[in-house]
Write a structure and sequence with these properties.
- The protein is built from 3 helices and 8 strands; from the N terminus they run ααββββαββββ.
- It has an 8-stranded antiparallel beta sheet with strand order 4-7-8-1-2-3-6-5.
- Strand 2 and strand 3 form a beta hairpin.
- Helix 1 runs antiparallel to helix 2.
């Protein structure tokens, strides 16, 4: 709901900006073709630059920054998986925390629904079976449900190679079998 509202606000702001630019252009008399010097640069009006600045501010406020331009820090993000058996705990509303380091590398932390997934690997199940040195160990997280009940579950700190696109992960269940899945991390919002 919060994201939908922000998108509506962004769309309304964008429309208002377009109207402001159109009105500003209509209010400014177009120079006669005969009086314009081809070598003289055309000057932007104060209204044009003010409206453009407002649009940039709205885009930044709405999380419209290019993912490669994320500043170091923590961001609340959506974490989607391809499976109903492997997903973010319902107490977290599908959200995780993305940490962006000074060098631009990204790691997302999210809590699962139980302690049945004992390792995670960024890549495929076949790769995980031969690359035991790079398995991700779980953290023990405490989640609180809407009814106030608390539960210990496993969480993972997962390196994120790309935002807004699925990437491969493999999970190792308690029975010792690796399974292929994908994770998509999107919509970073500053915490």
């Amino acid at each position: 709901m919060k994201r939908a509202f922000k998108r509506v606000v962004f769309c309304v702001a964008t429309l208002a900006l377009g109207c402001a630019l159109g009105c500003a252009a209509a209010d400014t008399a177009a120079p006669d073709a005969e009086t314009v010097d081809a070598d003289e640069p055309i000057q932007a009006t104060e209204a044009d630059s003010s409206a453009a600045s407002d649009a940039e501010s709205v885009a930044e406020d709405e999380g419209g920054a290019n993912p490669s331009e994320l500043k170091p820090g923590e961001y609340e993000v959506e974490v989607d998986t391809d499976s109903s058996m492997f997903h973010v705990n319902e107490a977290c509303d599908g959200m995780g925390v993305l940490t962006v380091s000074e060098d631009g590398s990204m790691v997302v932390h999210f809590s699962l629904v139980s302690k049945k997934i004992v390792n995670l690997y960024v890549g495929t199940a076949a790769e995980a079976e031969v690359d035991a040195d790079n398995l991700l160990e779980p953290t023990v997280d405490v989640v609180t449900y809407d009814d106030g009940m608390e539960e210990e579950v496993f969480g993972f700190d997962v390196p994120v190679p790309v935002l807004d696109e699925p990437f491969d992960v493999a999970i190792l269940g308690a029975k010792g079998v690796w399974y292929d899945h994908t994770v998509t991390v999107s919509s970073p919002e500053s915490e």
